[in-house]
Design a protein that fits this description.
The protein has 217 residues and is α/β, with parallel strands linked by helices. It is built from nine helices and seven strands; from the N terminus they run ααααββαβαβαβαβαβ. The strands form two sheets. The chain has a five-stranded mixed beta sheet.
Length: 217
């Protein structure tokens, strides 16, 4: 057999092994997992194979939990954080300082701040940040509900805890201008948080110090 014949047969051999070691169902799962944040194909494949080895009831429990994620979880009518009730547990907690409001971009920012155990106020989740390059302007974020939240609860101080990015800074400045006519104290977390990073990935000590050392806008 000459070299040409070997090379000609090589794709067929590789195709055979691909068909032997994969399945359409497995590839579908891997494809879905690869679409998740920070999950590459190799990691997705490891997760899929791990799930394949688990007992059937464990995988069904996970599938049920994923279904419940879409069917049971909604957004708090007061602060827009995620919840399974009309009002989230933070807004419903009588021990929280309802006069102190921390504005964040996403629900995971609430999780990050709560881990510090340094904030006893309430939150308002914007659901994003201003980003003209991505076509996200003031009309795309619900600033009206933020104003309603502030006026309804007699908020005395608003802490802006946007991510320290260009988009986060632009959003902070917009909110500051929006609230100036109301005469409310507006502060933002100190720059202990690295520029260009996300609150979600900031350690608890740094984030706690940023809250304590917040400055006026």
């Amino acid at each position: 057999m000459n070299g040409c014949e070997i090379n000609a047969g090589l794709p067929a051999v590789l195709f055979f092994f691909r068909m032997t070691y994969t399945s359409e169902t497995l590839e579908t799962i891997i494809s879905h997992l690869t679409g998740l944040p920070s999950i590459g194909r190799k990691t997705a494949q490891r997760i899929a194979l791990y799930l394949l080895k688990q007992p059937r009831e464990k995988v069904i429990e996970l599938a049920d939990a994923l279904r419940d994620l879409k069917e049971k979880i909604t957004y708090c009518s007061e602060c827009h954080n995620i919840t399974e009730q009309p009002i989230c547990s933070i807004c419903a907690d009588p021990k929280r300082n309802k006069k102190l409001l921390c504005v964040v971009q996403e629900p995971h920012d609430v999780f990050a701040i709560e881990r510090t155990h340094e904030f006893d106020g309430v939150y308002h989740v914007l659901g994003g940040a201003l980003s003209p390059l991505d076509g996200i302007g003031p009309d795309d974020l619900d600033f009206r509900s933020l104003l309603t939240h502030i006026q309804k609860n007699g908020i005395e101080e608003v802490i802006l805890a946007m991510n320290p990015t260009v988009e986060g800074d632009a959003t902070s400045m917009y909110i500051d201008r929006l609230l100036k006519p109301l005469g409310i104290a507006v502060t933002r977390i100190a720059r202990g948080v690295p520029i260009g990073s996300d609150l979600e990935y900031t350690d608890e000590v740094t984030l706690a110090r940023s809250l304590i050392g917040r400055t006026k806008m």
